[in-house]
Amino acid sequence: MNVLVVGSGGREHALTWALLQSPQVKQVFCAPGNGGTATQARCTNLPIGVSEFEAIAQAVTSHNINLVVVGPEVPLAQGITDVLQSQGIAVFGPSRAGAQLEASKAWAKALMLEAKVPTAASKVFQDAAAAKAYVRAQGAPIVIKADGLAAGKGVTVAATLDAAEAAIDDVFSGTFGEAGNLLVIEECLQGAEASVLALTDGKTVRPLVPAQDHKRIGEGDTGPNTGGMGAYAPAPLVTPALMERIQAEVLDPTLKALQNRGIDYRGILYAGLMITPEGEPKVIEFNCRFGDPETQVVLPLLETPLIDLLLACVEQRLDALPPLAWKPGVSACVVAASGGYPGSYEKGAAIAGIAEAEAQGANVFHAGTQQQGNELKTSGGRVLAVNCVGGDFDRAFAQAYAALEQVQFSEMYYRHDIGYQVRTAASAAPNP
Ligand code: AMP
Ligand code: GLY
Question: Which of 112, 220, 336, 389 is least surrounded, with the fewest CB atoms within 10 Å of its CB?
Fold first, then answer.
């Protein structure tokens, strides 16, 4: 088979890499891909943007592509699945209607309320005065969210009423475009976060191993939010008993509520969860796609061929599949970013040492990289992720950090404390 992966991040490189593990997959095409997918054997980048649906449909015909796998949320929210399916193309990823789960927080909240899915109490606002009166009545801390897609920048966890009011003004000032037409104000949840990515064919939903992301830029979980600076899996915080509750209280009822709305959802249902101090799983948000960098830690543990899972979702036979098989051990991943990210940063720095990192047994998943002639250059904020699978977290992270030390580019930044939750104190001590 030939598969087309839509997107250009580390997630898409990991998807490409995992798909190519199956002899059944002859060739992967990436639209537009990155410097890693450009040099991967049996992979070809196509110069097509993620929102160019007609060009994607033409590529499907001209390259005899059997399945399209959509990485990012933006084309899903724009209806890529609806457009391609109407032309008879098989797509992994929900329709525009299903993608509202991520693209409108107000819509997702209404669905959760209807499905009795545990989540933070919330209220939706269309104007700043009413929103401010509400936060004054509620008190701080409180969470302010732009309704729509805001590239991870639309959420403020406000410690004070002043910060909350400033965030309300920010959303309604047009900073987030249409994403800021509505505002959701939420109760601030306490606890530890975990990411549960689940496969669904619209009838059955099956979780992958739970993962832990590290959203903040700074060590000790400080500073602004990023797309994610590192991850590990399986996250021990999500015990098997808790996963059963997540299945029964979150995943199954959410799928049922989607079905009740007539939505045929085939793709990833990603629950971003807060596990409260009482051990309750509460949904912070849903995403309608694979997580990044969670995908870069989860897929290296997957023993069942990824292509079999994606096809079972698209062909609605997930219930007939045997239980998912996982490799022994644990998976660690550390992201290297351009200095300045998530603020402004330079692009075009030469990257060295990737072959050396790979020679140490690491998977290097590219994100913001671009192949220019024979040279690999930085082209984004998150540049690449180094992943290692090991017998335990101390070993997996030690190996990932040793491999990462082989990689060099100007102003390279990474957190030294990824996985601090699961590493022993000696191993997790920040490197000088
Ligand atoms: P989101 O973009 O919805 O994932 O939110 C970004 C981050 O904001 C989350 O990963 C949490 O760390 C934090 N957050 C969002 N909603 C809440 C909430 N209700 N309570 C506490 N933290 C939250
Ligand atoms: N790692 C967070 C996300 O993919 O949204």
Answer: 220
List, by residue range, all CATH 3.40.50.20 domains of the chain. 2-93
Mean local confidence (pLDDT), 23-45: 97
Residue nearest to atom 19 of ligand 1 (CA): 188
189 pocket-lining for ligand 1 (C-beta < 6 Å): yes
**Mean of the per-residue pLDDT values for the chain?**
95
Band of pLDDT at residue 175, cut at 50, 70 and 90: confident
Mutate-to-test residue for ligand 2 from 101, 208, 287, 382, highest number of ligand atoms within 8 A of CB: 287
Ligand nearest to the CA of 216: 1
The sheet with strand 67-70 has its strands ordered as: 43-45, 27-32, 2-7, 67-70, 91-92
**What secondary structure letter does DSSP report for 320?**
G
pLDDT value at residue 70: 98
Distance (Å) of CA 379 to CA 1, 36, 299, 355: 31, 12, 24, 19
Task: Kindly state if the Cβ of 149 falls inside 6 Å of ligand 1.
Answer: no
Q: How is domain 127-181 classified at the CATH fold level?
A: Dna Ligase; domain 1 (3.30.1490)
pLDDT tens digits for 334-377?
Answer: 999 999 999 999 999 999 999 999 999 999 999 999 999 889 99
Which ligand is closest in space to the CA of residue 227?
2
- Alpha-helical segments (H) within 20-78: 35-39, 53-62, 73-77
**Percentage of residues of the chain with pLDDT beyond 90:** 89
- 240-295 pLDDT per residue, tens: 999 999 999 999 999 999 999 999 999 999 999 999 999 999 999 999 999 999 99
Q: How far is CA 391 from the centre of its chain?
A: 25
Alpha carbons 216 and 230: distance in angstroms, whole number = 10
- Residue 432's pLDDT is 40
Compute the distance from residue 291 Cα to the ligand 2 centre, in Å: 4
Locate 145 and state its tokens.
Answer: 């969210």
Is there an atom of ligand 1 within 6 Å of 269 CB?
A: no
* CATH, range 192-320: 3.30.470.20
For atom 5 of ligand 2, the residue with the nearest CA is 291
272 within ligand 1 shell (Cβ under 6 A)? yes
**Percent of the chain topping pLDDT 70:** 98
Q: Give Cα separations from 186 to 7, 132, 183, 190 (angstroms).
A: 31, 13, 10, 12
Q: Is 120 close to ligand 1, i.e. is its CB under 6 Å away?
A: yes
